Amino acid sequence: MKFFLYWLLLFPFCLPAQTVGDQIFIQEVVKIHSFKDGLPSGPIDLLSMVNNKPVARQSKQYFQFENGKWNLFASGLKAEGVSKLPVIPGAKILALVPFKGGFAIGCDKGLYIYKNGKKPERIFPENEKYNWSLKIVSALVTDSKGRLWFGAEEGVGYLDGETWKLFTGKDGLPFNKFTCAAAGPNGIVWFGTQKGAIEVDNDYFKYRASRRWLPSDQVNDIAIQKDGTAWIATDMGISQISPVTMSLEEKAKFFTKQVEERHNRMGFIAQSHLKEQFNVDSSEVAISDNDGMYTAMYGAAQAFRYAATGDPEAKMLADRSFKACKWLVDITHEKGFPARVIIPADWHEPINEIYSVEANLKHQKTDPMWKNIYPRFPKSKDGKYLWKCDTSSDELAGHFFFYGIYYDLVAKTEDEKQAVREVVGDITDHLVRHGYKLVDHDGKVTRWGDFSPEYFASVYGYDQRGLNSMIMLSFLNVAKHVTGDPKYDREAKILRDKYNYHIYALHPKEFFPPENVVPWDNNLCLMSMYGLIKYETDPALLLMYRQSLESAWQHISKQKNAFWDAIYGSLANRFTELADKKMFENKNLFPENRLYAPKVVKSLYKGSNNPAYILENLHKIPLDLIGYTMDNTHRLDVVFDSSPLQNENVGWRVDGYALPVDERGHVRQDRDGFALLASEGDGHDEHEGTFFLLPYYMAYYHGLLGQGDRNIGK
To answer: Cβ–Cβ contacts within 10 Å for residue 171, how many?
Structure first.
């Protein structure tokens, strides 16, 4: 983890223009210290600052951190306290802190204030919500504003003058088994607990737990440097959490560098594998199940970047991504069929052995819809490469999303535009030629590539018809826009008039039962909505698609996902612009129900999103994109989803929104933000920075940054 902190310290934080992307914020950066850095193995039981440098204690040995290394520190630490404390009968003292010329004392019997020569006075914190007779007061600290903070079984509170402010899980407190507390600058306070650390900033609680933040979750002590850097002692080493000033543009440069150095395989973008757990220096390029989609998303990020900034590097990367995506189409058995993945023929993993006929048949015992196709990685015609088949709707959604954006924003010359026309036409023609199906090298439809009316009428496909009908109409809209060929309009009209695809599209994805609700459907739904609405010209259809967008959005709007928020915000704003231009007035669009059009315009005139959540999510995306296992099921500030048949580990914060992205297991923006127990590789995978770059540059291009309430999510 050294790379993150050292890179930030060396990076020149200066940009000439003051755009939204240049405005600075605080990015918390983590470095884990262990025996590799000079610490002894095992628990660190005490931390203190000596000349603003951390000193750690294990048993009777002391170590000071200096010049990037922990060294034996001969001086030891002076014990803090008072020479003589009063006896509190039957009580065990757990915490002590100077306060108003005396001391605040925390014990198993409660909170006491002691002044020399006076009897200890027991304190009973209360306000308009709570009246507490405290127990197990194991954490006390006085902050930089002179306020007395405590941590107890009942919760957290502070005394400001004569007024108490008190917090429980209902008020955002994540956990209440306290071990220590420490004060930082600007009124910030840190609490250590038996399961993670809690940072309190302006009455907002940030939970710092799991290997993303700490070597282990048992926090034994905390010390804060003058610049606000928190040093946290645990049973398996020390965590250094530094508040680093940076801008969104600097963060974008960091992630572009990360993608190019560790996630670029022949132009394809995917997660990387870490041969040593948690160590990005051991990274090796890997393949995903959706290289096409993830490469397309990176290409779209660079296309928006190019359109917003004019940076020639962005055009180069967008061009490379386009060529990689087109190669996926050109390499396969049939014109217009896109592969999932391309790898060299001598790839180090035995991929076809993994997907043998025997393995497929075994897989079908638990998943009857699993496709038995062999080889799953056919060889290219020149024998140099293997490409993965059984391509899905996810891949197609990525391709069409990117191609429209690339065509509009990046392709300048006629040759560049013609290349886009060809690949879009080839894929769309393949689908139409096969009855709206993606047909594999075995002559059969892929598992998730069926967009046909027959599939929608079947017991296997009825639940997919809303999503897949909308997606197919989106593909045809993109194809019409890019190629200019009216045949795609004719195909779309057939699907609407004969098979009601536009009616099905009003229900663009499943919401129940939970087993049918998968987060990547949210992703490809919103991505396909972009092309569907952006390139639609029929006002009646636009009204229906806007209603469909709202239906999809309302069921994911609480996840604080910057990518989905950016797509929704851009499309909702476009609808507002069209309504302002009177596009939907006096057209007799729905004569059978003349109230439909004005009702949709009135109710959906403006988007129901808060654009400030985009900025919040972009700020909070951690620089460390290693996939960690994170368990939030014990938290006091979550509400479990009690919907019928719902997974027991699904829930949200007490404010009704998903936990912040830096406090949950999923850093990818195509996952379920409500999953309270999640892992993406358990420290063996690093994920690509596309999940910051795409929402950032998309929001930048569409003017969605810097709007809304800036106080959200502090």
So the answer is: 17
What is the residue whose two structure tokens read 């129900």?
593
Closest among 277, 283, 279, 276 to 262, alpha carbons compared? 283
Range of the domain at 152: 93-235
CB 614 within 8 A of CB 705: yes
Binned at pLDDT 50, 70 and 90, residue 14 comes out as very low
The angle at the Cα of 553, spanning 454 to 19, to the nearest 5 degrees, equals 130
Dihedral pair phi/psi, residue 96, rounded to 5°: -150, 135
Closest alpha carbon to 636 in 47, 33, 205, 132: 205
Q: Are residues 572 and 507 in the same domain?
A: yes
- Got the DSSP string for 673-703? TTBSEE-SSTTSEE--THHHHHHHHHHHHTT
Q: From residue 54, how far is each of 186, 335, 352, 518 by CA, in Å?
A: 20, 63, 53, 46
Closest CA to 508 of 529, 535, 478: 529
- Which residues pair with residue 166 across a beta bridge? 157
Q: Residue 5, exposed/middle/buried by CB under 10 A (0-12, 13-18, 19+)? A: middle
What is the bridge-based pairing of β-strands 163-167 and 178-183? unpaired
Q: What is the DSSP letter of 521?
A: H
Task: Give the whole-angstrom CA distance, residue 673 versus residue 680.
Answer: 13
Q: What is the tens place of the pLDDT at every residue in 389-423?
A: 999 999 999 999 999 999 999 999 999 999 999 99
pTM metric for this prediction: 0.94
Tell whether 308 and 213 lie within a shared domain: no
Same domain for 508 and 594, yes or no, is yes
Q: Measured between alpha carbons, how far is residue 392 from residues 155, 337, 373, 460, 492 in Å?
A: 49, 11, 14, 16, 21
DSSP string, 118-172: S--EEE--B-SS-B-------EEEE-TTS-EEEEETTEEEEEETTEEEEE-GGGT
Q: How many domains does the chain have?
A: 3
